[in-house]
Request: fold
Amino acid sequence: ADIKAGRQLASAQCRTCHGLDGIAQIPVAPHLAGESEIYLQTQLKAFRSGKRQSEMMSVVAKNLRDDDIVNVAAWYAAIEITAEMPE
Amino acid sequence: ADIKAGRQLASAQCRTCHGLDGIAQIPVAPHLAGESEIYLQTQLKAFRSGKRQSEMMSVVAKNLRDDDIVNVAAWYAAIEITAEMPE
Reply:
């Protein structure tokens, strides 16, 4: 995977909703930060094939090549996250 | 929403794969920490109705009542996350 290419793709096509750092900018979009490569790849391919439906993502994923999916998944998977539960 | 009830439900039914703190324990499951209530509710309802398919989640979601969904979404949404991008 080419993480640098993945970062560029994320910056161009994902960041408005999901953030370049994978922290979502709008409530209907999920955070992607630190999700596993296999999860991200599986979901992008499901959007691309129509198996998973989303008004926005069905359009975006349609134009992704396999290597785009590998690269952008590698970018978001490389982000480290920490979680803090409420008291 | 009853966050305490949501935490209990998460502890009983979600934590093995998604973690009680929403950090996934297995690569095929996404992190849920800090996802928005609306996103979490929408996805759980999609799994329950069959609109979104997943071997595991289609089974789990089938038994959730509306208030279970509201409560468990409130629990995971209440977790604070921070993300750090690679250099």
The beta strands of chain B are 80-84.
